[in-house]
Amino acid sequence: MADSRASATLTVEIVASCVTDTARAHSIQLELDDDLNGGNTCFTPNTPVYIMLFPSPYSLDFSVDISYGTIESNQADDGFVRYTEYVTISDGEGSSSKPIHTLESYEWIGRAPCPISQLQFDTSGYKFFKCNVCSGSPECGDSCEVVNGVLKITYLSLFKSYVINVPAAETVVITAYEDLSGDCT
Fold first, then answer.
1. Residue 37 predicted with pLDDT over 90
2. Statement: residue 12 has pLDDT above 80
3. What is the pLDDT of residue 124?
């Protein structure tokens, strides 16, 4: 007897675009919404499946397609998720697992290079950020310099909610891609 369980596959495609700030990479992440799906990872046909899409930055213009079935925006369930994670800072740069919308707290693991109050983050809704030690304390001197180390951070990441519906047992591919604008090539 053939296995008739439904399964799903998420695929994310990042396409070339007119990114004016080449120091920052745009990204899109998709994942199942554990809360709205009740922790389920297997679904039967005609059962709503909820997806969270994390664009970086949050204002990124993008489109979402599905290989079979339907996908619709579920704006009523757009929201945020709180994450706590350890980030390695190398040459003053680090990367969180999701785009940072609001940095709630951070602490150095081990010996901090300067007082915590002297660290500045430039997140701007991206996953990638810079961490500099800035002037104003005897330990740091009068200039900014990059730092290396490990930070424990807690932050909020915004997501957009989608619901998919597949009418028959089928493997589906969900593709999210950045929209090109103007005369991009």
1. yes
2. no
3. 55
Looking at the DSSP bridge assignments, the partners of residue 74 are none
List of residues 6+ apart from 121 with CB closer than 8 A: 103, 106, 129, 130, 131
User: For 117, phi and psi rounded to 5 degrees?
Assistant: -65, -15
Rounded Cα–Cα distance for residues 113 and 110 (Å): 9
pTM (two decimals): 0.71
What domains sit in the chain, N to C, each tagged with a CATH number?
9-15+23-79+158-178 (2.60.40), 81-157 (no CATH)
Helix/strand/coil for 123 = coil
Token code pair at residue 75: 């704006």
CB atoms under 10 Å from CB of 147, counted, come to 21
- The percent helix, strand, coil of the chain (3-state, each to 5) is 5, 45, 50
Distance (Å, whole) CA 156 – CA 101: 6
pLDDT of 138 strictly over 70: no
Buried b (16+ CB within 10 A) or exposed e, 54-91: bbbbbebebebebeebebeebeebeeebeeeeebebee
Return the CA Rg of the chain.
20
| End-to-end alpha carbon distance in the chain | 50
Please state, in angstroms and rounded to a whole number, the distance separating the CA atoms of residues 122 and 131.
7
